[in-house]
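dude i think i finally got it to work??
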Amino acid sequence: MPQTLTRDEVARHPDLSLFQKVLLLTDGSVTEMLSVYHGGRPISARKLGQWLHEDAPPAVLLAAPGTDATAATPALQAPNPWLERRIVLEVGPPDAAQPLVHAASAFRLDGLSAVTRHGLLHTDTPIGALWLAERCEMHREIIDWRLHTDAAVAERLGLPAGAPLASRQYRLWQGGRAMGWIQEQFALTAFRR
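look at this
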């Protein structure tokens, strides 16, 4: 079932609802859209885990704008602290929250403000909300869209192991530097009112 899609294929895909297409194609944060979809209810981020690394960041964080995500500049491959994080965006009270979107991410810590760095390391707040609070400019560069399965992610979303998922991967740019990478995944059966 794994299938990589183009922007046009996402826009026309018969198995995707209109709201799923919006989530996949937006160059903005999905958190506010999820809140609107759920009648203005707040969306919370539950941190599943995070790991601080002291080696060279992943190639996707070292590539120049508009280049292949694996085309790292050798000068940037030196050890540099970076954070790997996994969260689930949820709606509802903590004891009965409904999981909506699973997000895996990696962030370079060099170049981030002290406030953003602290928020990433010590809170569940999504980076988009941290940068919004600081009024920082940020650009999302979507790398790809996919329809696939992932047993571990499906389990975190409360789905059977073989449940089909839709996902997008993107880089977050700030000040001309790739500062973050995020992969957001949700059930193909979700958001179908």
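The CA atoms of residues 13 and 119 lie 37 Å apart.
im so relieved honestly
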